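We modelled the chain as a single entity of 168 amino acids. Its sequence is:
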Amino acid sequence: MGRVYLATHPEILSRVAIKVFLKDWKIHANLVPGFFTEARATNLINHTNIVTILDVGRLNNGCPYMVMEYLKGSPLSGLVGTEALSDTLIRQLMLDVLSALDAAHKHQIIHRDLKPDYIFVSPEGRATKLSVRRLRYRRPIAPSSVRAKLLAWCESLRLLLRRSIPLD
């Protein structure tokens, strides 16, 4: 949906990530409202394991942008298949992700495109943030259904990582 650039805030010198919508954004103008919905939903959740949005707006040419906190670490997808993913780390990452998803669900928000590319692992071994992607508000559903879906997601992540680790 866009490109992400590393930048430095000119006044306070903090590192930030700036996500700019697609170069040909006018062709995909129907996606722009979702871009801003993601920012609103992310800030509504306000969870330690979800990226913080600092600002949104439009460039001089009308192209939408989003300023987010800079994430230290690497995407989980870059660690799959490496020795860096111990059983202990995998369990911790699952707990972090499930905590973020639980917070989102409490606000009736679901993440429709959760995959290892959108989970950043900090140098300390925590799922520092879920990057914002394809969030949407949902109708309330039964807690047992949510639990079943989360367990199914955990199982698919476990299979992806090709580990045989207990979930409890």
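As a brief sanity check on the tokenised model: The chain has two domains: 2-69, 74-161. The CA atoms of residues 60 and 123 lie 37 Å apart.
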